[in-house]
């Protein structure tokens, strides 16, 4: 008879167990342990054993408790610690209540105390770094979800958006294989190149394999134009693919564009020169732009010519004035002599 009763109790527990939603409790406490915990639950109001009431209590204290769920949002490194914390609070109660009758008030007090301690201890575990958009498989950013008993994936694509780089011919350029999220320590980096602008894998050819995050081109030539792909692996699993589209501009085209810009500015009417942006603090040692140097040099030459012209005009006028003052006394003396002779 007792065996039949025990079987019925276990059946009711399993039915109640599967009717509940998943939670931190059910993620780490198995069915048999739940049976042992709830088999002696007594509803004090009616003084009867009620397994369903016990599971309702567990559901309220653990499954539907937002504080418990938030406290369990830890990173992958603390999964075992999270499990040990919950089992460390529940299993002593299981051992104490197994095959013993206890009123619902006793269950309530002990389970509430266990949940409170779990929240405090689990909140002290390291938090997951979180997801950083827009791309990459970010295992370290996954957060444990007590509702699903799994780590929530960031669910970003492996391929990052294409980034544009433009460099003048014969100048250097660099591309970095960097991501904002945490990477494992055993990564391998593969650099690939395609002559066209593309994200299709079959268009790329492998260039280097190793751990170098930097791809440098000291002297860019026209044939360096194309798409560069950096792919990061960990244990042969792809984590992210980063793309750079490089455009190398011929140096004569750049020089022609700069001269055209200076010429266009020279044709602007007086007072219509473009206002240059203000120099930010701590950048006083920066050299001015070639266009500004050209305007300043032209202004200085014009000022010099005007000054020389003014000096020449002033000196000529002074010489004429001195000659007039020198001739005037001779004319008066000559006139005086003529007057004396007539007397």
UniProtKB/TrEMBL annotation:
One of the protein's GO biological processes: fusion of sperm to egg plasma membrane involved in single fertilization
Residues in the signal sequence: 1-23
Domain Ig-like span(s) in chain numbering: 157-240
InterPro entries in UniProt: Ig-like_dom (IPR007110), Ig-like_dom_sf (IPR036179), Ig-like_fold (IPR013783), SPACA6 (IPR034549)
Bilayer-crossing regions: 292-314
Keywords annotated in UniProt: Membrane, Signal, Transmembrane, Transmembrane helix
Protein name: Ig-like domain-containing protein
């Amino acid at each position: 008879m007792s065996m039949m009763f025990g079987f019925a109790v276990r059946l009711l527990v399993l039915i109640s167990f599967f009717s509940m939603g998943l939670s931190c409790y059910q993620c780490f406490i198995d069915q048999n342990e739940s049976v042992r915990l709830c088999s002696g639950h007594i509803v004090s109001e009616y003084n009867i054993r009620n397994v369903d009431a016990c599971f309702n209590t567990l559901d309220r204290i653990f499954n539907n408790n937002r504080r418990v769920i938030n406290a369990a949002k830890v990173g992958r490194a603390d999964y075992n610690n999270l499990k040990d914390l919950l089992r460390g609070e529940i299993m002593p109660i299981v051992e104490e209540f197994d095959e013993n009758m206890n009123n619902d008030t006793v269950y309530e007090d002990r389970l509430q105390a266990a949940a409170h301690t779990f929240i405090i201890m689990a909140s002290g575990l390291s938090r997951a770094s979180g997801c950083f958009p827009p791309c990459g498989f970010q295992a370290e950013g996954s957060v444990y979800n007590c509702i699903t008993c799994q780590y929530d994936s960031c669910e970003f694509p492996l391929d990052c958006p294409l980034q544009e780089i433009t460099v003048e011919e014969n100048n250097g350029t660099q591309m970095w294989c960097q991501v904002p999220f945490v990477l494992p320590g055993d990564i391998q980096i593969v650099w690939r190149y395609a002559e066209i602008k593309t994200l299709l894998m079959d268009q790329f050819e492998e260039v280097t394999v190793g751990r170098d995050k930097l791809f440098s081109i000291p002297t860019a030539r026209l044939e360096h134009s194309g798409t560069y792909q950096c792919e990061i692996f960990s244990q042969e699993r792809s984590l992210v693919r980063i793309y750079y589209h490089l455009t190398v501009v011929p140096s004569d085209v750049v020089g022609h564009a700069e001269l055209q810009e200076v010429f266009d500015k020279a044709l602007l009417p007086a007072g219509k020169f473009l206002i240059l942006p203000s120099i930010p603090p701590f950048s006083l040692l920066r050299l001015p732009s070639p266009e500004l140097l050209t305007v300043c040099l032209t202004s200085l030459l014009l000022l010099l010519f005007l000054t020389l012209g003014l000096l020449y005009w002033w000196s000529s006028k002074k010489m004429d004035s001195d000659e007039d003052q020198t001739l005037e006394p001779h004319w008066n003396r000559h006139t005086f002599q003529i007057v004396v002779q007539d007397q």
